[in-house]
Amino acid sequence: MRAPRILVTGGAGFIGSHTCVALIAAGYLPVVLDTLVNSDARSLQRVACITGVEPVLVCGDVRDALALDRVFAAYDVSAVVHLAGLKAVGESVVDPVSYYDVNLAGTLALVQAMDRAGVRTLVFSSSATVYGDSQPSPIAESAPYAAVNPYGRTKAMVESLLADLARADARWGIACLRYFNPIGAHESGLLGERPHGPPNNLMPYITQVAAGQRECLVVHGADYDTIDGTGVRDYVHVMDVAEGHVAALRHAARRPGILMANLGTGRGASVLEVVSAFERAMRRPLALRIGPRRPGDAPAYWADARGAWQAFGWRARRDLDQMCADSWRWQAANPHGFDDPAPAHASGLPRFQDNTSTSINSKPGHSHA
Ligand code: NAD
Ligand code: UD1
Predict the structure, then answer these.
(1) Nearest CA, atom 10, ligand 1
(2) pLDDT of 1
(3) Which ligand 2 atom sits closest to the C-alpha of 301?
(4) How far apart are CA 245 and CA 51, in angstroms?
């Protein structure tokens, strides 16, 4: 029997490429739609090194209705995992229109195309950012929407759109996954996070300091009311997040309706605890200094992670030490990201025969956000 094809929008990105690995391991064949505006097509070659299967890459924009129709016509897709989007909080404050365009209008174009194609199973990349910064932790899915920035509001609006859709049409099965703080990398050291430009988030900053590419980590505030004064977050391994998509996809394919689920570990870790775990992984100290608080930062939040377990049997399995060890393995082996050749042991693996890379844009030059 042929592997079911899953359209993965944004599948060349950090979480998307790891999700492709998990989908292939579970017997699916990802078809990636990505503009590559914040990613690198070579991430999918690394997916091939790990799995022996290179996902099909279609270079196209999720806002492009004609491109979407062509993808659904060309590939017999049975469901969609929708990760394509813009995700920098600060940028969303400066340029909200681009965020509403890509994240909200992009999702609208996608569900319209899915409906035309008769594909009505969807897993959507949401975020803990929909809860805002003042909910008591652990945060359960029943907490109200209280996003405090345009990025977070686009995620909350998309969730509302999808909830209305699922209420109106019982043929849809939808899962919105609210990620907490995904970090780590594939344990092979072949695939990991490679941000374009200076990193905003903690782990890519740490790895670049560890690799000597940045002078020192600036800890954004050490005077919070937390275990050691530094900010606390629920870090979750990106491969756990990736496997969460597979579990949620199976659930959404079986059950009509909509489900919102946190993807977190249910435990918080402070900045200094993450640094200590990273130092254990690389066996030397990390250069850091304490700086002022970052505007807009919440002191501490972590997930109530029971919902995903109860709904579709997923829970995080990898701990903070593994997240740091895997992040460091990826960074150490690939100091220049995907510009570094894949390690020799990865070559010679079988390649999937259906590896095609195409560009489907209805309007030339329309592919970038
Ligand atoms: P990423 O930037 O690595 O991946 C997003 C991908 O979408 C990139 O490959 C990018 O090129 C692509 N893309 C952007 N605009 C597009 C468009 N108009 N059409 C097609 N492709 C487009 O980010 P990520 O960390 O992998 O995040 C994936 C999703 O998860 C995003 O929707 C993000 O908002 C969400 N999310 C991420 C985090 C996190 O900490 N990384 C947390 C919560 C939610
Ligand atoms: C940020 C976003 C959030 C998004 C999440 C995952 C903001 C205000 N929030 O959240 O919307 O969902 O990323 O993409 O941008 N830290 C340092 N030094 C650094 C970087 C971070 O001390 O150089 C600290 C932060 O103050 C925080 C913790 O590390 O306490 C985690 O920061 P980060 O990785 O940016 O994630 P969030 O703050 O949770």
Answers:
(1) 38
(2) 74
(3) 39
(4) 17
pLDDT < 70: residue spans in the chain: 343-369
Sign of the CA dihedral with 37 first, then 38, 40, and 44 last = negative
CATH of 5-187+235-267+303-317+343-359, one of 3.10.290.10, 1.10.1040.10, 3.40.50.720, 3.20.20.70: 3.40.50.720
How far is residue 293's CA from residue 298's CA, in Å, rounded to a whole number? 10
Please identify which of the residues 151, 205, 235, 301 carries the catalytic annotation: 151
CA separation for the pair 300, 351 (Å, rounded): 44
38 alpha carbon, closest ligand: 1
Closest ligand 2 atom to 297 CA: 8
The yes-or-no answer on residue 151 being catalytic is yes
Tokens representing 214 are: 């940045």
Predicted pLDDT at 263? 98
Cβ–ligand 2 contact at 297 (below 6 Å): yes
Q: How far does residue 120's CA lie from ligand 2's centre (Å)? A: 34
Q: Is residue 56 within 8 Å of residue 80, measured between CB atoms?
A: no
